[in-house]
Amino acid sequence: MLRTIDTGRAGIIAQQTRLDTVANNLANVNTPAFKRQEVSFADLLYQEMNAAGRPVEKENPAGADPVHGTGARAAAVTKNFSGGALITTGRPLDLAIAGEGFLQVELPDGRYAYTRSGALNIAPDGTLVVDRGYPLAPGITLPGNYREITISFDGTVLVGGEDGAPEEAGRLSLYRFVNPAGLDALGNNLYVPTPASGEPVEGTPGQGGFGVFRPGCLESSNVDLTREMVSLVETQRAAQIALRMVQNAEEMWNIANNLRK
Fold this sequence. Notes:
This protein is of the alpha+beta class.
């Protein structure tokens, strides 16, 4: 019965992790460029047991009964970096990345982070920054007398001066990783590389397999509400089963404790 309680407890903990993940996905359904998380499960240790219910030593497995499992665990929570739908905003500083790639930004501590959220703004000094105020890297600073700004599909930033003639203020690059799922999420749609993700590879939009920019658009979240609601129901049912397992074991324990000779 103790083993049954431990197995049920492991199942409850695993489903709690999945429930938290699904809840986070649903909460970010309207967050631009948000990438849904997925939970993968793995079974726990198996043991060979004898007729008396004691583990069998590996050195002496003769006469062992079939192996007994000890439950399941949440093995990993990974990001799904499939693209979301593009939403037209008409704002000249909004950029969506159609295809593979990230924008690079510089954090206050000097590190570089990467994002697919292209809601850009202009800092008081004319520097292009992402929506959290972090500057793009390499930085692009607009001249003080510009009247309008245009960003092309290949990342070229053009500004119109007082005479109306467009001038190039800089060019945006894209970065990609061998294994994007290995990136470490910082929050605010920012990711930093890890040994699992590999080092960033810089490229030109539209070349070498990199995506292109879609000016005046934003990438929506890739969360599928129907899928998440199905996962929510599945998680609830699995947690109920695991909880019922613990309750049944407790009831059997009470019966055994109340037996009279």
